[in-house]
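Problem 12. The chain below contains 103 residues. Write out its predicted structure in token notation.
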Amino acid sequence: LLKLIVTQGGAEDKFSCPTCRTETVLPEGGVAGLKDNFFVLSLRDTVEAHKDLAGKEDDKVPCDVCEVMASSGCVVCEEFLCEECARAHRRTKRTRDHEVIGA
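Solution.
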């Protein structure tokens, strides 16, 4: 952040937001006082999940519901599902419109 402020030549308590480009005042707590960007946090969690999958030697991931080997996953719930749980997920009223992707 300090490097950004120096390159912009502005005051130390104001800077241009790197996402929306609006002038932003740095809160009293400094960088720690800024609000979390939940989109970025979700993206980070997704990348970590992919790293975990890629790091598994046998490429077998347990179903998040019943612990049998997963063959698909729900994009909305971010859960790994076996074939039987995926079928139930597609039938359940609350989750029937979720996108379930097969492996």
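Discussion. The CA atoms of residues 34 and 66 lie 39 Å apart. Students who got a different answer should revisit the alignment rule from Section 12.3.
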